Records
---
Amino acid sequence: MSAKPSVIHHVFFWLKNPESTADLEQLLSGIKALAAISTVQKLYVGVPAATEERDVIDSSWSASELMYFDSVEDQNAYQVDPLHKKFIAECGHLWRKVQVYDIKVKD
């Protein structure tokens, strides 16, 4: 990673059909393909963990992506990358809601 402040892009997806294993697998596959975008430094893909239920934990989502970028500019470039647009075109019909948290890492 460069000397610029790092950016973490955390996205949560709620499937339209949360009981569909096929829909979840298609979404996870689509998310994993985003790792090929050159500005993505790291990509983690996951589903809710079976941790202890507590009031502060939201496990209502279906899938999540956690990405690391070297800069805001790199994250902005990711947004308009053809692979990102392809992901939205091919998988956008699967989700009913998306929530994004962009974080500027403070040293």
---
Amino acid sequence: MKPVNQKAWFLVLPVFICVAFSAILPLMTVVNYSVQDIISPERRVFVGTEWFAAVMRDEELHAALWRQLGFSLSVLLVEIPLGIALALSMPAQGWKSSATLVLVSLSLLIPWNVVGTIWQIFGRSDIGLLGAGLKALGVDYNYTGNSLDAWLTVLVMDVWHWTPLVALLAFAGLRSIPDAYYQAARIDGASKFAVFRYIQLPKMRGVLMIAVLLRFMDSFMIYTEPFVLTGGGPGNATTFLSQYLTQKAVGQFDLGPAAAFSLIYFLIILLLCFILYNWMQALGQTEKEGASHA
């Protein structure tokens, strides 16, 4: 029997080393902090699950979680359909397609803190185009003093920043569809909606699943943009989970509760992504079974 060459595993070794230093070791440090009361650098007391119980009873955390869920779901409900519509309207070939791809991608190149600064100026009623325009129309808009205005501004800012990512993924999915499908649809006299419903949307399901998961995870960890724009206010209107965690760890220096909250935060994201992924998989399987029966 010919011996199996195991030298290929050495190619994977750098990946394991990078993962160990970038993920596993920091995770174990957080787990260590989450079960201890750090009184001083030299003195620590083991408290078990005390911090986890305290975090789960925190009403401010519950409010931030519901606020975060509402924001992330709103992001998906707006950005996914808008990104698909943008991808469908983009030219498929030629120099116009290349120019459109570059223009659509521009907002993705802007750093998060710069995005917050741009919208901070954009929303001002004295010098900002949005704020001054709404003021001229008689709209009482004040993202620094009105909770609803602040929340909507953060949502629109995120839509402006990240919808192009969904559009690019959807565009890639559309370009992977063979022309034979469109030719068959034209022969059958299918409408544009029928082509989208039965050809384009099913073929885009894979990239849309990636887009949904990416946007959900990223929106669930949003921090820099609302911090720069509103500082989490007015009140706690735009204080999402990541900012609440930062206030706990840096502002109050409660490392034990902050570490416990970090682990709970991590598990919440994993659980919600698992549920979302399986729901989308089940939805796709149901549609395939319905199409096969038809």
---
Amino acid sequence: MRIAIVAGEASGDLLGADLIKAIHKQNPNVQFEGVAGPQMIAAGCKALFPAEKLAVMGLVEVLKHLREILNIRKLLIAQWIENPPDLFIGIDAPDFNFVLERALKDHQITTVHYVSPSVWAWRKSRVKKISCSTDLMLTLFPFEAEFYKNAGMKVEFVGHPLADMIELEVDVEGARKQLGLPEDKKIVALLPGSRRSEISRLSKPFLETARWAFKRDSSLHFVVPLINDSARHLFEQALSEIEGELPITLVDKQSHEVMASADIILLASGTAALEALLLKKPMVVAYKVSELSYQIIHRMVTVPYYSLPNNLAGEGLVKEFIHRGVTAENLGGELISLLNDSQRKEEMIKKFTDIHHQLKQNASERAAEAILGFIS
């Protein structure tokens, strides 16, 4: 059996590698080829193109590499139509993969897409195009599967690989020792995002929040993971503008350890909120973009919540502060309130634990079973 596969970014490379290993456990004779990163190559995938060719972020960067990206897709389509694989798997990268899947499906090649785009939250009309491209959708979240079932698509919920990787019990003390954090303080993790635009917009309000909260509770100590030198420079620049003393530790990368060490987390809405949930951490979520982007997104979003924890819980479990609501008084007030409300924290942690169990499904093995069962 021969499977074509395409993954674009580092996260897709990790998913792809685990999936290849899981399929090989069930059928060692399957051969893989496509667009692959180093982990997928190590797992046994023949790379026709390196995944880094598709890992381009930002409008200007995409435009700069657009001709090369489109040419790669054209070459893949031509090659696989001439020599059809038994199955194609597109991992995330929806803008690239759905067009590729549509072309292959039109030539009677079975297509699977692993990781749903957020069509359930906005641009729901895209599901019609997706159904014309994809024979089977594999989702990480149960509410996504319901969305596709209601749209008449073949879909399987396989669980989230991150839920498989993170232990149900968190070693808080070990994380604090590793980071050299004080043991006698309440640790507040600040995660203003990983993208430059997020860090630029959220660093100052997060630091103003920390200052506001510290004035009211001097037992707080803040810790911030920074993904690279550029992020550190932006954050340190914002920190230099904050008046007064602030007990704060800056850490290079190690966001997982930082979150594990915390009593509470203030973070940008995004995938970090899911990791915080799986680590059973009380949290406050902020979402801030440009005024124009907010006006556009606000009109297009069709779900009641921005953050994954609330969408997974089906209720406003975590307080979300959106755009103009991102102020020191709002964020700091919620941090202090939640820190001091043991009953609410316990209820939140219990629901986070229930969601962790729900998502912990041996995702790669279930995805492999669904794929091999679909073409058997």
